[in-house]
């Protein structure tokens, strides 16, 4: 009579409940579909009811709502009995809610965006209970009993950071929910009532409470005739069996943290993955996405192995590498010599030195002579031929204040200060070929003067060049000598453009995102033709000789068509090598993140070896060679497109006989050595340029 009267007087009618999607973990896969990282706000992995062991279903229904399959839309008798008991203060808090009502409460708690809403969702009041009843009536009309049970098992929290039956089963017992046995099922069924009080990670007392609760479930199952007395006794004799299976989350726990970090920031910062930053973050942490990436384990392991062979994790200087596919921009590998983490005592690194700031990286290192090919490309595009060149001395001064102008028309050439060669020695005639192979500073300054500083900057930008710290490129006359701080991903993508005959492709790490419902969204390369194909071929022709006649001849090639350029910065503050084959491009940087200007690569021990001076070929070039050999193993060699000699052969009046040299040497530039930009010139406006580095990018350079 009480139930009938209450239903009529309180106008208990069904009320539709909003059921937002549950927070699900997001998984990162490599190119072959193997998981290497995951992100989650809640550790949850939703499953269908047929993926849950029958004994688990029996256990949870026995202890939480044994009349679940028998009562109607709501079990009003049990509900009001518990509500009266709780609100009148007659002892401890009593349950009495049906599984349907518990599901409703969980939905309301999960939907709450404020603490006030969360408190309201669990408040022990009649009004909250009445709302639950209205929602529960609608849920019972909307779903079948098995569907309600499935949703309840997926939304429930079991403790130890495990949300949902599948995550709990794996976390507690290291197995999927489909394989739970009697005592394991009873343990998880018991944990639902008070997951905080029975959390096995909370200590011995909490584990004992969970064990007691498990035995209570077993007794209830025996009482209801679901199991025999012997089965209950045997199950109660078992130990708790909590395995505390680790649930790695975030890039810290990933086997490939630097690639993971890049993909994470790409997801967070790129609008193609969501209109707003908050939406993208929510999707990453809660969306239950499966993100397929471009990570190639063969290339990744080859990079890690090569770096480890030449640079120790305990060294102050750090080597970093990225590998990019020409024609697609797919990033195949990303690695650094230090372990990723927050522990400074262990020399761990908390940012991605292989990437720019927008992808979790730092401010980068000056790229040195890896920038010279941009001037070379500009000269070839303006009609110069392979044997065209210029004659310079051992030093170079801008002829006048107007010799160099940046892209805003500002004068930056300062004739009062001089840039000198390093180990190239004196001047003389250098062609585009010999000047590049020997990496002659003065030659490239004069070449840049001829073709135009702004034109060189424009060429670099076409190839995706931008500073690692996101600031505007420094457009001084020493631009060609690599005064801008860069990251390996950006440099790799630029060199991949040359390999792809002038097709620039934006670096990409994500190829597909599949939502929680299995709907897949593919992401294609974003490419455009930015260089004349034959100009790229001509530059490749010159750069391919760096292994036989240039600054990498001491290291040698990789047994297949390849091209590249060493890069050593002013004062040996950083060392680079960037190179490519038709199938893969890569760049390796080396510098000290404490501040490359203050901590140069002179008189240093790296990887257990002492170096008086570290050149581009010394370590970076060797890492590049070793890693590329491993990354390309089993892949048939591809050939470069031959240079069009009818267009680029000979000279156009700017040539002279190449300087003679002895076999096995280069023009005054010892094998394995690269240049050094000895003096940084002024800005033409009374000030001096700052070289800058990752640790201190504001130290003025005094001429």
UniProtKB/TrEMBL annotation:
Name of the protein this chain belongs to: Membrane carboxypeptidase (Penicillin-binding protein)
Family according to the record: In the C-terminal section; belongs to the transpeptidase family. In the N-terminal section; belongs to the glycosyltransferase 51 family.
Keywords: Carboxypeptidase, Cell shape, Cell wall biogenesis/degradation, Glycosyltransferase, Hydrolase, Multifunctional enzyme, Peptidoglycan synthesis, Protease, Transferase
Gene Ontology BP term (one): regulation of cell shape
GO cellular component: outer membrane-bounded periplasmic space
The keyword Protein biosynthesis is assigned to this record: no
Organism: Streptosporangium canum
One of the record's GO molecular function terms: penicillin binding
Record-linked SUPFAM superfamilies: beta-lactamase/transpeptidase-like, Lysozyme-like
Coiled coil: none
Pfam families found in the cross-reference section: Transgly, Transpeptidase
Domain Glycosyl transferase family, first and last residues per copy: 33-222
Keyword Transferase: yes
Boundaries of every Penicillin-binding protein transpeptidase domain copy: 325-583
Catalyzed reaction equations: Preferential cleavage: (Ac)2-L-Lys-D-Ala-|-D-Ala. Also transpeptidation of peptidyl-alanyl moieties that are N-acyl substituents of D-alanine; [GlcNAc-(1->4)-Mur2Ac(oyl-L-Ala-gamma-D-Glu-L-Lys-D-Ala-D-Ala)](n)-di-trans,octa-cis-undecaprenyl diphosphate + beta-D-GlcNAc-(1->4)-Mur2Ac(oyl-L-Ala-gamma-D-Glu-L-Lys-D-Ala-D-Ala)-di-trans,octa-cis-undecaprenyl diphosphate = [GlcNAc-(1->4)-Mur2Ac(oyl-L-Ala-gamma-D-Glu-L-Lys-D-Ala-D-Ala)](n+1)-di-trans,octa-cis-undecaprenyl diphosphate + di-trans,octa-cis-undecaprenyl diphosphate + H(+)
Classification via InterPro entries: Beta-lactam/transpept-like, Glyco_trans_51, Glycosyltr_51/Transpeptidase, Lysozyme-like_dom_sf, PBP_transglycosylase, PCN-bd_Tpept
